[in-house]
Amino acid sequence: RPAPETAENEAFFENAIIIGDTRVVQLLPTYNIGTFSKVLYGTAINVSNALTYDCVDADGVEHTFASALTERSYGKVYICLGLNELGWSYPEVFEEDYDALIDERKRLQPAASIFLLNIVPVDEAKYSNNYIKNSRIKEYNDMIMSVAQKHSTYCVDCCSGMSDASGSLNGSYS
Fold it and tell me: Predicted confidence band at 27 (pLDDT cuts at 50, 70, 90)?
């Protein structure tokens, strides 16, 4: 399901948790998104280790995603992962691990809506490695959409508003 295009107001995020890689810290101010109940991020977090990785919250306190989901109930769970996985040799593992992550999230927070954020395109000229490419990002975004459809969750399209006509990151965001 596509996510709603806009939140009605800042209160939309008051009962929400977001977990992700360091893009979370960059995306929230860019989109001027409201205040989440909890924001967790980590530099090396990925779909395989997300439940057990020690993430940092806005106060600098470490939590795992699993522990944060057991601390209180949330109405919405946002997941922003995928960039760190672009270099994986076996992309199908990404989809399998994302499925397992969603299943565990459903077990820990069965009433919460799930929102999967896709991966924002990059300015490829700024990356010297061979795996952070927009073609690879599209492949992974297709898998994120597949996971969202399989689990009847929302998929938040971060790409459309931040990409240029060629599919690269719009220069105003780099």
Answer: low
pLDDT band at 165 (very low <50, low <70, confident <90, very high): confident
Structure tokens at 122: 């990059």
What pLDDT was estimated at residue 57? Answer: 81
Distance CA(82)–CA(47), nearest Å, equals 7
Going by their DSSP bridges, the two strands 16-20 and 154-156 should be labelled as unpaired
Selection from 139, 126, 122 nearest residue 173 by Cα? 122
Dihedral sign for Cα 89, 91, 92, 95, please: positive
Pairing of strands 62-63, 55-56: antiparallel
Sheet holding 38-41, edge to edge: 62-63, 55-56, 38-41, 16-20, 76-80, 113-117, 154-156
Amino acid making up residue 99: D
Segment 28-62, tens digit of pLDDT: 655 555 577 788 888 889 999 999 999 888 788 88
